[in-house]
Amino acid sequence: MTDNDPAGAGKPGDPAPGTPEQGGWPKEEPSPWSVQGQGGGGYPYQAGPQGSPNPYRAPGQQEPGNAYGAPGQPEPGHQYGAGGQQGSGTQHGAPGQQEPANHYGAPGGHGPSYPTATYPMQAMRPGPTPRRNGPAKLVAGVAVLALLVGGGAGAAGGYLVAENSANGTNSSANALNQPQPAKQTGSAQPGTVEAVAEKLGPSVVQLQTEGQGGAAEGSGFVISSDGYIMTNNHVIENAANGGSITVVFPNGNRANASVVGRDPTTDIAVIRAEGANNLTAVELGRSDDLKVGQSVVAIGSPFELAGTVTSGIVSSLNRPVTAGGGGDQTTVMDAVQTDAAINPGNSGGPLANMSGQVIGINSAIYSPQSSRAPGQSEAGNVGIGFAIPIDQARRTADDIIKNGHATQTYMGATVGDAPSGGAAIGEVQQGSPAESAGLKGGDVVTKLDDRVIDDANTLVAAIRTRAPGEKVTLTLSDNRTLEVTLGGQPVQGG
Description:
The protein is of the alpha+beta class. It is 15% helix and 26% strand. The strands form 4 sheets. A 6-stranded antiparallel barrel has the order 1-2-3-6-5-4. A hairpin with a 5-residue loop joins β4 and β5.
């Protein structure tokens, strides 16, 4: 018997060469299931600081990404972990330092918990080789059995291939030898994201602005063949007074644009591309009959990636959010919430239904506080975006084009949050619709028509969605009801 003969390394109790006091695997022939280190191998995934090569690792130093881990220097990202230092992000954990949220281990750095299924396992730390009459002998037997089974299967497979070749057939197939499929032709199927992108793509533009606030970019969409484009006020605001606006069309053509009018309170603006004609205008839908869960598509220029298409659903309706990201109550809008990916640069682009009709203008995203930089927000999509309902945007844009300014719907009273819920009326303006309806300071509004009013912003947003001259019924906390005819006033600063 020799040192190179694993079957003859000794009987139980005999010492292995090089390890007179322990017994176990021969020095030159490591266990086929161990990750070899000084003093021997062990059970699956165990690692030692040095030693002869293990069967799952190529020899050499500092080999990150070993399938079962390798000893030595820090190796981040091991699938099963290594005995190095600070191995962040391992799937099964490493005994290194500070590995948060290991899949199987504790968040600390003192020996994670391992799964025990499949193989018998001891404590996962470098240590002596287990005795041959223990689990290692069983594992070796399993390995030999696997080799025998594999050899038999290989022989049978070779026989079948030879037989098929003798019969003039070949059982193998090669994708590279297959002909290319026919090229896609024709229009997309109606009601698909592809069809919506095909319909709206020619009408969505990228906007590049420069002004006192610096350079910015956003999105917009064509609403008339002679160059009128709808967008957000916050997209073009820095160029509204002496700056420049450039429209980039899907075909790469560019045109300068001027501001026709804007409404900071609803975050709507209309611009006009100079010298443009024969443009493809979008088809406007309606937002008063949207359903939660219905599919929608967003198109725009996130991070200057023009023509980007994303899809999702209507996540919620009537979400009060402040237009343009400000905190001013006068800019609160009643938004459509969607999980379609919306990012910086999508602002002003369309949110469409599956018929390719625009039902909203993408305007805002929810940005949670950054865990790495307290006080700062993460600027990116987290699945919560907001769009201005097209019914409100359409009315504002039409007013801007026809009258040169936007008209704001108002009631004529200040409001705040009531301690017990609802919107508490503060000062009532003299001669306002609120005064004419009999509303007084101290009243608490709990409903507008059949919509529950749970705070001041909800009441402001609900009124903004209505047109001047509309009649609404307010329900107060004492169960009185008042009918208010809403008024309209020109927007200042547009």
